[in-house]
Amino acid sequence: MALFESRQSSFERLVRAYSTELYRYAYWLCRDRFTAEDLVQEAFARAWRGWQNLRDGAATKSWLYTILRNEHARLYERKRPEIDDSQELDEIVDTGSGSVFDQFEMRQALEALPPTYREPLLLQVLGGFSSAEIGDMLKISEGAVMTRLTRARLALRKIVGNDVRRKVTERWTA
Amino acid sequence: MDCIEFRRLILADPRTRTPEQEAHLAGCSECANLARGMENFESRLYQAMNVAVPDALAERILLLRRIRPSAARVWALAASLVLAVAISAYFYPGLGPEREQVIAAASVGESHPAVAAISYVVDHESKLLAEGRSGDPAIMRAALARLGLKLPSRGVNVRYLGKCPVPSGTGEHVVLETALGKVTLILVPDHPLGPRIIVADRELTALTVPVGTGGYILVADSIDHLRRIEKTLM
């Protein structure tokens, strides 16, 4: 954060820099695009209110991810959002990169992962965090993060190679 | 480094390669194949996670921060609204909707829903219209019905349909095309809009109408246009 930058302009810069990746992280936490947008909105609202807690400029990104993660945990305590399959299919068509089948297959596999494996993977792939940073955010050791990441990728490779291909083929040929 | 250790590391973090990993790769064709496969796998994984992001997300977040007032501003806004309504009532007693007066934006402040709606139209609408995306007409019809409104079968076309930030969360943003030009309709589901009021700001006029626990806001280029479209929708 620039030394003489006002709080307002710093905030605007943060929103423009991180809202996209935070939305994607939120989407994969709740798998509902409207809830994801609400989560991002609320996370930034909390960030604005808690601005004085941001001491280290370098930690801004992980601070925002942690706020969003906590917001999701609060939401999850209140209700578990229903997932609309047709909405997910619509999302796949919208992205416009990679084959539709590939994306569908990988997304199904990601959804099938237990949250304890999926979350460090999201933080690494979407957020670009190191294992040590993920460990700080999830409050687990770096070694535990690496174990979860390894298992997550092993599980994904297995699912993508087997179950999802079979299920999707069955669905499309039924 | 043996193959097991190499595979454990590459599965945990395919982006990072230590000198030891590079040395192992140079002498192990199986692990080299795995490393190539992992690059493709990571690319697919990233694409799968890379879901489409709603249009103008950052702008909506920033706008919501502007229109979601702090507790102190709520009291200031309430006081200014009471004052504005009292002045209107004193100078124009007994006026019906046809003769409502237009209040300047400065009287109600930039946090007032009418002024915020005008800001949204000025700052974002042309971009949203250019993108040409459209929401679900069924959701719009249901939202209109909840507010006792309906679209006429003739004379009004829906040019844009989407979501927009409102103090209670998300509202419906509809751009209508009429014979007189463009009108914006913002449906606010669960947030009190205060008394019915017409506000002018930056060559646009906004009408807020409370209905039940929410209400709607119309934005057009003139008060005459606003009144005509309001009659059409009722």
Task: Describe what this molecule looks like in 3D.
The complex is a heterodimer of chains A (174) and B (234). Chain A is mainly alpha-helical and 174 residues long. In chain A, 77% of the residues lie in helices and 0% in strands. The N terminus of chain A is likely disordered. Chain B has two domains: 47 residues, no CATH class; 176 residues, MucB/RseB, C-terminal domain (Phosphorylase Kinase, domain 1, 2-Layer Sandwich), CATH 3.30.200.100. In chain B, strands 1-5-6-7-4-3-2 form a seven-stranded mixed sheet, sandwiched between helices. The chains are: A mainly alpha (174), B alpha+beta (234). Chains A and B meet through α1, α2, α4, α5 and α6 of A and α1, α3 and α4 of B.
Q: Helices and strands of chain B: which structural class?
A: alpha+beta
Gyration radius of chain B (Cα, Å) is 27 Å
Largest sheet of chain B: 7 strands, mixed
Considering the protein shown, what is the CATH homologous superfamily of the largest domain in chain A? RNA polymerase sigma factor, region 2, helix turn helix motif
How many domains in all of chain B?
A: 2
The helix fraction of chain A, in percent, is: over 70%
Cα(first) to Cα(last) distance of chain A is 56 Å
Key descriptive features of the protein:
A: 174 residues, mainly alpha, Rna Polymerase Sigma Factor, Chain: A, Arc Repressor Mutant, subunit A, globular, B: 234 residues, alpha+beta, Phosphorylase Kinase, domain 1, 2 domains, seven-stranded mixed β-sheet
Chain-wise SSE layout:
The complex is a heterodimer of chains A (174) and B (234).
Chain A: H1 7-30, H2 33-49, H3 60-78, H4 85-95, H5 100-112, H6 115-125, H7 131-138, H8 142-161, H9 163-173
Helix pairs in contact in A: 1-2, 1-3, 2-3, 5-8, 6-8, 7-8
Chain B: H1 3-12, H2 19-27, H3 29-49, H4 57-67, H5 71-91, E1 102-104, H6 105-108, H7 113-131, H8 137-146, E2 157-166, E3 169-178, E4 181-188, E5 197-201, E6 204-211, E7 214-220, H9 223-233
Parallel strand pairs in B: 1-5
Antiparallel strand pairs in B: 2-3, 3-4, 4-7, 5-6, 6-7
Helix pairs in contact in B: 1-3, 2-3, 4-7
